[in-house]
User: Which sequence fits this backbone?
């Protein structure tokens, strides 16, 4: 007679580490964005401050909603950076690392991107170009990486 060891898989335990990283980072990110209580290091430009001062109550809440989604995406992106590589490697050993980094960037870059826009609003063309190329073009590049990855993964299964 053989004895079998039965293991109980707790899939929710894997998510606890994600939440333990993402939730505090999201809160900290929300509080330290451009114009937030802890975000003085990239305070909104005078032009952005004037725009914010003239915003209606609804617009202020709508901007706060965007900031909340950016904060959640930032926390999730960092958690994915820390814990997501195993999944991307399991799906595609050849593309696992580049896809891992692409997904993380796609998630966590929005908070930095938006805060820099508010910080440099109405500033120099060079600052705006740096933001546009650093974020917009890199996100287009990341979209291309993910499209190729998707096509290769689906192509293997078809």
Assistant:
């Amino acid at each position: 007679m053989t004895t079998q060891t039965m293991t109980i898989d707790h899939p929710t335990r894997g998510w606890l580490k994600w939440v333990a990283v993402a939730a505090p980072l999201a809160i900290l990110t929300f509080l330290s964005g451009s114009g937030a209580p802890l975000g003085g290091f990239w305070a909104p430009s005078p032009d952005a401050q004037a725009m914010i001062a003239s915003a209606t109550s609804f617009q202020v809440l709508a901007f706060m909603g965007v900031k909340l989604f950016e904060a959640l995406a930032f926390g999730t992106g960092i958690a994915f950076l820390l814990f997501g590589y195993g999944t991307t490697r399991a799906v595609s050993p050849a593309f696992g690392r580049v896809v891992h980094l692409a997904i993380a960037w796609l998630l966590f870059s929005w908070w930095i991107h938006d805060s820099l826009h508010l910080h440099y609003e109405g500033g120099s063309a060079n600052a705006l170009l740096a933001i546009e190329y650093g974020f917009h073009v890199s996100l287009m590049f990341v979209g291309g990486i993910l499209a190729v990855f998707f096509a290769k993964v689906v192509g293997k299964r078809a």
User: Anything to note?
Assistant: The chain has one domain: 17-157. Residues 17-157 form one domain. Helices lie at 11-31, 46-53, 57-83, 85-91, 96-120, 125-157. Residues 1-9 have pLDDT under 50 and may be disordered.
